[in-house]
Amino acid sequence: MNKIEVKHLAKRFKFAKKPLLNEVNFNLEENEIYGLFGENGAGKSTLMSMIADYNRPSAGQVLFDGQEVHENDEALSEIYFMNQDDMYTKKDKVSQIFSFVESMYQDYDVDLQAKLVKEFKLDINQKLNKLSTGYQSIVKIIISLCVPCKFILLDEPTLGLDARNREIFQSNLIETYSENPRTFVISTHIIDEIDRIISHVLLLQDGVIKMNGSIDEVSSKSYSVSGPAEDVNSYIDGVKVLDEEQLGRYKTVHFMDQLPDREVPASVDIEKMKLQKLLVYIMDRGEL
């Protein structure tokens, strides 16, 4: 079973008042889909780049099956990092870029590539620098889904994509994952668009991992309760509320706890708290 271990990882920049990352610890397990969340500047891109050995940490280590990834060609051949930097020659045609990547990977999925080119309506005879930001992202998405790596790191993969192409990306990610399971790590600000496909949540804040759990664990104890204020207050009495909204007599409260062991008033509705609501609360308040 393949696994990536991130141990005591830190990143400090010269002249910065505090480290960007400090004592970051977590594992990436085989065949999971992780959502990596955090505010702008939290260090998500830097963290992913260090996992893929694009960037060296100030302290700590990244292990693939117990071996350091740094300058480890065998380990790095199983890790693919899609980011928003200029990964390919801008003046090359898309077809040339695809041919180059295919030559680098023995089991590159050319059939899936052809399918995605058609669905995204991508003109492979265009030069990369002539494409819009969205279509440059699409080129990188196609490559990311077709490389035969066991760990795929996607940094803001839907940057510049319209709703149609975001849907194509998500549906194809689910389909290819079902047919050929491997680990995906998706860093994005559009939380509510990927919460239905991820299996695990990582929240990076203040240089550390603030939340690390399966989506089932998180959602099993995160609730939103709505109804007339007096009935809601009566039902949740004794529960630590994270946040609440009220409009007239109608009230909604959000909490991360077990449901009260009492009868639910007929006027009260209970649903799982949206992941975006929970993460935004933690990012705003810095705590649960």
From TrEMBL:
Q: Which domain of life is it from?
A: Bacteria
Keyword Acetylation found: no
Q: Where is the ABC transporter domain?
A: 4-231
Keywords (alphabetical) are: ATP-binding, Nucleotide-binding
* Pfam families the UniProt entry points to: ABC_tran
Citing just one GO molecular function, the answer is:
ATP binding
Record-linked InterPro entries:
AAA+_ATPase, ABC_transporter-like_ATP-bd, P-loop_NTPase
Query: Transmembrane region positions?
Result: none
Record's protein name = ABC transporter domain-containing protein
